Every structure is written in C-alpha cells, then in structure tokens.
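Students often ask why inverse folding is considered easier than folding. One informal answer: many sequences map to the same fold, so there is more than one right answer. In these notes we will look at a single instance of the problem. The structure comes first.
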C-alpha cells in the first residue's frame, strides 16, 4: 500500500494490490495514474475523503472527464480516415481564420492607439544628451527621419565631404555632427533630395545616435526611448508634407549661419 503522492509521480514502484488516496485529488490525469498503480489481479483503488467535500466533487469530475474521453475515442474509432482528415482540415481552417481575424483587430487597435499618441517631448543626442529639437517636429520622407524645424539646423555642425555620394534620388554631401562642442558625435548625413531641391538639404538622423524623451500629456511623466531603428518607435512619425509652393525660410536652415556656442 502506498499512501503518498508517489502514485502519480511516474516512479518505478512495486506492484500494488491496493491503492489508497487519502484526501488528495489533483487533476484527471493524476486520478488515472494513481489507479493504474494497482497492477495485480484483483487489485483495488480507493479515495478516502469527506463526502460532498471539494476533493470528493473533484474526483467525480475527474472520473466523468475520463468517461467522456473514452466515449470520444470510441466515436473516433468509428470515423473513416478520409472523413477524419476532412474534419481536421476544416477545423484547422476555422482556427486559422479566427486567429487572423483576432490578429487583424489587435493590429488595428494598436495602430489606432499609436496614431493617437501626441508627440510631446525632445530629441536628444544619445551620446551626451544635447537637445536637438522637439519630437513634434520629426518628419519622415521615404526612409529618412529628420527634424523639420529651423532651430535644429542651428544645433548641429556640418562636416562637408569633398566627394559627395550620389544615389538614384539623393546626394549625400557630408555628415551632421552633434552641436555640442564637447561631443561632436555623428548624428547622420547631409542629404540633398534630387526631386525636391528647394527643400534640400535635409539631415536624416541615425536612430542609434539619438534618444527620445517622450512626455505623457496627462501626467507629465517622462520616458526615455532608445531604439536601433525608427520603425521600432512606439509611435507613428508623420510624413513630410511638401506643398506646391514653399517658403524655404520657414523650414530650412541657411548653411552659412554661424553655429552658436553651447
């Protein structure tokens, strides 16, 4: 006789003619495991517990679960192989459809939440914390993310290259460095847009070179965000709007302006 939890532990125990469980009922699998320990001919399995107690009701549920499983197995044996495969594929298709619908709803909800985040905060140099501009002024154009604000161009230093790199739609003419005289970390490049000469140059920022200080509007709580890619930011960056006519002085910095001291 074994009266401990060893009966369901899968241990190599001797053959038992009597298995007693004293007020101990786990799940339906545990019930089956305990009963099969009674291996000899004429063996018996008993549960000792108070009638109508929680364990008593649980044991009844476990035995009913076992009986239901037996009925399912008997039903399954009577189903042809082709019909079984058909029903499995049908159920699989149904589950995939439900999963896709649930995923779509989740993505729509998350996208809506991201778009509704008001971009309050600052863009800082990741190396030294130097203020580069306001988060609300960050814009996306193609694969480039930059601060479209006049003051930003007063807070960097340009390092013009003697050999510009030419691409299909852009011309990279140099590097943009942090405006702090004690830092000068490379923030990104100086980029001329061939299709939009009037609004060039722009200064795309490398995501790994900046950090975002996001301020929650309701509470004023600040959160520092560090990402390797702009697309991983927990908010949506607005696209750059390019009107037919544009007063360049309102947005873009004259490269001949003098870089102010810190």
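Output (designed amino acids):
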């Amino acid at each position: 006789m074994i009266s401990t939890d060893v009966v369901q532990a899968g241990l190599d125990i001797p053959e038992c003619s009597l298995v007693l469980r004293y007020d101990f009922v786990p799940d339906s699998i545990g019930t089956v495991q305990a009963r099969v320990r009674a291996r000899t001919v004429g063996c018996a399995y008993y549960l000792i517990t108070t009638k109508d107690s929680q364990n008593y009701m649980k044991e009844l549920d476990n035995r009913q679960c076992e009986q239901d499983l037996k009925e399912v197995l008997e039903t399954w044996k009577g189903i042809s192989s082709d019909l079984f495969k058909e029903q499995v594929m049908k159920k699989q298709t149904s589950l995939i459809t439900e999963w896709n619908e649930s995923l779509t709803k989740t993505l729509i909800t998350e996208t809506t939440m991201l778009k509704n985040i008001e971009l309050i905060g600052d863009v800082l140099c990741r190396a030294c914390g130097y203020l580069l501009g306001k988060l609300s002024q960050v814009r996306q154009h193609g694969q480039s993310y930059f601060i479209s604000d006049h003051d930003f161009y007063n807070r960097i230093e340009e390092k013009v290259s003697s050999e510009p790199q030419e691409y299909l739609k852009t011309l990279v003419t140099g590097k943009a460095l942090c405006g702090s005289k004690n830092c000068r970390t490379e923030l990104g490049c100086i980029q001329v847009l061939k299709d939009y000469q009037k609004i060039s140059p722009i200064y795309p920022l490398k995501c790994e070179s900046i950090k975002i200080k996001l301020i929650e509007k309701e509470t004023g709580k600040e959160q520092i965000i560090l990402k390797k890619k702009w697309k991983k930011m927990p908010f949506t960056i607005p696209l750059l709007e390019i009107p037919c006519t544009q007063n360049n002085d309102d947005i873009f910095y004259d490269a001949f302006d003098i870089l102010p001291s810190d």
